[in-house]
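ESCALATION

Customer reports they have been waiting on this structure for their group meeting. Please prioritize. Original submission:
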Amino acid sequence: MAKQLSDNDIETIQAYDAEKRLDYLLKEVVSNREIWILIDDHGSVMLNTEDEDCVPVWPNKEFAEQWATGEWDDCRPESISLNKWHSRWTYGLENDELAIVVFPNPDSDGLVLYPEELDVSLKKKAGKQR
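Update from on-call: job pushed to the front of the queue and completed.
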């Protein structure tokens, strides 16, 4: 189980640039064996960039919760086990031609990756942590 983040931790991590947030996400997801999305009654929340339809992902519940406001206040965070991510989500997102926006925060966009790119990065990080 992931440790509860303090408000100070959240504020510090939110200030990271997109690359550092990606690194943090990889470390947390591998360590906690889960990745977070936002869902509503119709499925996963989507973000749109100029080029891609994306599923946003976060490393911790607290960061996903911060997005559940305004037009998304009916959304709730949901964790996906890392095993399920590797076995079903990567393939499913690729089939649906969706990208992933990694750890967006209220002040800046996250990096946009293709599902296979995130999958490979997570597996590399897992290999380094053993």
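Sent to customer with the following note: The chain has a mean pLDDT of 92.
Escalation resolved.
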